[in-house]
């Protein structure tokens, strides 16, 4: 997929970057299976975009929808009523489940967990944005690292937690500081491969302009690289936020045998 999307990159000058390749993409392109899949997808697209609309209007089904469209207010009201009633029911169930005696401590625990999540995300951005730029500027490194990073991003971070838990238990470390690197395991990959994608998507003419003006060091980052990849950094932050919150609950609780270490935060509430 990464190799296929390179054809949609906007370039109006000759690019100096070497186009990436993929053995899997090449096998599909030149194999009979790839040809059959391509033909099947073309037939499906033709059926969906052209054949079905002709059948639809040939059977005059659009007139049926014109009639039902007059009752849109009824369907809309029914839908909103169902949504409100469902939310009210689940809210009541949550209220009955929630331990009322911890209301006073909830703001403090929420702030502690939020601080750990923010710290993990900031460190991920500071560390892996330059690393992603370094990889993205070299097509060979992109070819080697990008599939690995995407596979690692798909692995649940909880898989790595037993290794960290064993280290903390054996060497008697404090979980308080180790919770942040554990949360970073669920955030760093999203930042990294989004930054790599942003660097590889930069049109070559913008790179040539930056070289023409002789941008170096801080000015190179401020006026060229960071503005060019900023949308991808934001995308990585949004993706990493979900992973950070999922990792935070598990990172705040470590149990290796009978000993258990629980940090003040949302995990302490769930353990209660």
How would you summarize what this structure contains?
InterPro entries: MetI-like, MetI-like_sf. One of its GO terms (cellular component) is plasma membrane. By secondary structure, the protein is mostly helical.
Number of domains: 2
Distance between the termini: 45 Å
Helix count equals 13
In the CATH scheme, the class of the largest domain would be Mainly Alpha
- Going by CATH, the homologous superfamily of the largest domain would be MetI-like
InterPro entries: MetI-like, MetI-like_sf
Keywords: Cell inner membrane, Cell membrane, Membrane, Transmembrane, Transmembrane helix, Transport
Protein name: Bicarbonate transport system permease protein CmpB
Subcellular location: Cell inner membrane; Cell membrane
């Amino acid at each position: 997929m990464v190799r296929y999307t390179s054809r949609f990159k906007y370039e109006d000058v000759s690019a100096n970057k070497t186009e990436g390749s993929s053995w899997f993409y090449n096998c599909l392109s030149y194999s009979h299976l790839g040809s059959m899949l391509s033909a099947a997808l073309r037939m499906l697209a033709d059926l969906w975009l052209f054949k079905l609309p002709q059948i639809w209007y040939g059977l005059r089904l659009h007139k049926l929808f014109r009639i039902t469209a007059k009752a849109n207010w009824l369907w809309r009201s029914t839908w909103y009523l169902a949504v409100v009633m469902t939310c009210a029911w689940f809210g009541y169930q949550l209220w009955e489940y929630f331990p009322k005696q911890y209301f006073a401590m909830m703001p403090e625990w929420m702030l502690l967990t939020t601080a750990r999540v923010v710290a993990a995300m900031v460190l991920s951005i500071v560390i892996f944005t330059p690393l992603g730029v370094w990889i993205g500027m070299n097509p060979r490194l992109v070819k080697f690292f990008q599939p690995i990073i995407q596979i690692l991003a798909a692995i649940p971070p909880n898989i790595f937690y037993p290794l960290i838990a064993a280290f903390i238990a054996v060497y008697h470390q404090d979980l308080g500081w180790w919770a942040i690197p554990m949360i970073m395991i669920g955030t760093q990959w999203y930042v990294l491969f989004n930054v790599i994608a942003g660097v590889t998507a930069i049109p070559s003419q913008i790179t040539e302009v930056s070289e023409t003006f002789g941008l170096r060091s801080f000015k190179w980052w401020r006026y060229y690289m960071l503005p060019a990849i900023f949308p991808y950094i934001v995308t990585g932050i949004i993706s990493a936020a979900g992973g950070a919150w999922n990792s935070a609950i598990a990172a705040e609780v470590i149990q290796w045998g009978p000993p258990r270490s629980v940090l003040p935060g949302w995990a302490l509430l769930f353990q209660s």
